[in-house]
Amino acid sequence: MSNKAISTRPLNDNEKLLREKFYESIVAQSDLMDKLSERLLTLELAIPGLYATALKLMYGDKATVTLGTVGYIAFGLWFASLILILFALTPKKWKVDVSILKQDPKKLDQALGIEDFFEQSAIYKRRLISISSILFFLGIVGAALTL
Q1: Whole-model pTM?
Q2: Cα of 4 vs its chain's centroid, Å
Q3: What residues contact residue 75 under an 8 Å CB cut-off, 6+ apart?
């Protein structure tokens, strides 16, 4: 092992700004997922309503529309998608140790560090949003097959 001294210097203004923006982006990820969830929630409430309205306009007041299995599957997928988005928007309780910035990955099941909290909450929301989006798209495909 070498006894050679390691030279250091204080961070310059650009490096401080980059570090600050990096941590701001970590903190903002969960908020971005919430904004995306809100937009998807709006779409997931509007599209099935528009679909039902289009069916009514196409077939009139007196006509009966049989959706069949594919139609029920489409509405089921839309409903499942809506539930997942609501879970993504609902706050989840996390166990966080505020004295730790970054927890050892082997101990994440015990408590998260502060940085881990922002990262894990964003990952949790991103997974729910991704699955919800896939289910919603499959519902749209199913609805298109019923026409």
Answers
A1: 0.78
A2: 49
A3: 48, 67, 139
